[in-house]
Amino acid sequence: MTSRLNPYINFSDTARPALEFYREVFGGELAISTFGEAGGADGPDADKVMHGQLETPAGYTLMVSDAPTGMDLDTGTNISISLSGDDGDELRGYFSKLADGGSVSVPLEKQMWGDEFGMCVDRFGIAWMVNISQPAG
Whole-model pTM? Predict the structure, then answer.
């Protein structure tokens, strides 16, 4: 798998209908996971979208999520750029360079879903997410 870059949009509570709308516009296949499916079944965000992804026939990838309770969400800060793939060295290098002069909000490390993931804001105020897929075992 090669690395890819795509937009990642955060919503207050409308990630699912937004993603369904984008599917109507672009076509394609949806994959949606909720916070409840990721261990938060009893929490206030159980039905919210933790991660949604649309893969279109044209090769576009759009990712979305709902902001969990307590997370500030302002227009202008509700979109990130996501880098993902399985070339760990390449993606760790990108993360390091993007974070240089900026700030790291989530260190790039192994997460509960098994991948390495991190978030940072670059020196220009752009939010980035990096996900390194782990080999299927």
Answer: 0.67
